[in-house]
TrEMBL record:
Keywords: NADP, Oxidoreductase
Gene3D superfamilies noted in UniProt: NAD(P)-binding Rossmann-like Domain (3.40.50.720)
Similarity comment text for this entry: Belongs to the short-chain dehydrogenases/reductases (SDR) family.
Domain of life: Eukaryota
Lineage: Eukaryota, Fungi, Dikarya, Ascomycota, Pezizomycotina
Alphabetized GO MF terms: oxidoreductase activity
Protein name: NAD(P)-binding protein
Coiled-coil portions: none
């Protein structure tokens, strides 16, 4: 069966956008889905619910992630779709000293960058490795990365989150051209607004009117659009690779990269290399 089936790996797959994407793949037939997550209880429940396979993984641990990819590839001999979706939105800020002191403050935590950015770099690195070993005629070769609307805008209330997601978008756009040119692997990013998932506590969603929230189903719609590589009539262009699709409410927008200030800067950044 796995010779004809397409093989998907979804990080952060035990809940939220990852789980909803897995649920959307199964009615399409011929998909075998692996949910990667650190939450074993949720992961096993999600696997039972969807018919997917669950592998407990800490995405910030490269060895753990690499072992999961290796297991999937050994089982099926190919990988077709990787959804680098794991991430966090909240982290306790470092304590502010109660009294002024000449001593340096405690170092800020790098967990946000580790989970949101480093894990995406790990995941896409592994995906590209196994795509190169997958037969070219064995189905799609596609990576979708969950960035955020905070990839585009400053956020005074969540600077570490915004920094991590700016990095995610920069990484995605930077690797996409060579991934397509060298291996015909499509790499694209989704940039959702506020989505009601367990990434935030329920009381935080109460701060926003319902019309400001982005439905999970809308996010999944865009993920599948990128997976299929179909032309997007709304955007008037083909979503091939290196695209960033912002999702706000029930609308989505293809967001172009900022223009280079001049040809010299374009050359410095490697355009045309």
């Amino acid at each position: 069966m796995s010779e004809q089936a397409n093989i998907a790996i979804i990080t952060g797959g035990a809940s939220g956008i990852g789980l909803a994407t897995a649920e959307a793949l199964f009615p399409r037939n011929n998909w075998i889905v692996y949910l990667l997550d650190r939450d074993a209880e949720r992961g096993e429940t999600a696997a039972d619910k969807t018919g997917a396979y669950f592998i407990r993984v800490d995405v910030t641990d490269y060895a753990s992630l690499a072992a999961a990819f290796g297991r999937v590839f050994k089982e099926h001999g190919k990988i077709n779709f990787v959804f680098a979706n794991a991430g966090i939105a909240l982290e306790a800020p470092p304590e502010t000293p109660k009294e002024l002191s000449n001593e340096p403050p405690a170092a800020p935590s790098m967990k946000m960058l580790s989970v949101n950015l480093q894990s995406v770099m790990f995941t896409t690195h592994l995906a590209q490795h196994y795509f190169r070993q997958s037969p070219a005629a064995s189905g799609p070769r596609c990576i979708v990365v969950t960035a955020s609307s905070a990839s585009l805008y400053a956020s005074a209330i969540a600077p570490a989150y915004a920094a991590s997601k700016h990095g995610v978008l920069g990484w995605t756009r930077s690797i996409a051209p060579d991934a397509w040119k060298q291996d015909q692997v499509r790499v694209n990013a989704i940039l959702p607004g506020i989505v009601r998932t367990n990434i935030l506590p329920p009381e935080m969603f109460a701060m926003f009117p319902e019309q400001m929230l982005t439905p999970v189903d809308k996010v999944v719609e865009v993920v599948l659009l990128l997976l299929d590589g179909d032309g997007d009539e709304k955007a008037g262009r083909e979503l091939r690779s290196g695209q960033a699709v912002e999702i706000c409410g029930t609308n989505h927008y293809v967001r172009n990269q900022q223009e280079y200030c001049d040809p010299v800067m374009a050359a410095i950044m490697g355009v045309g290399a």
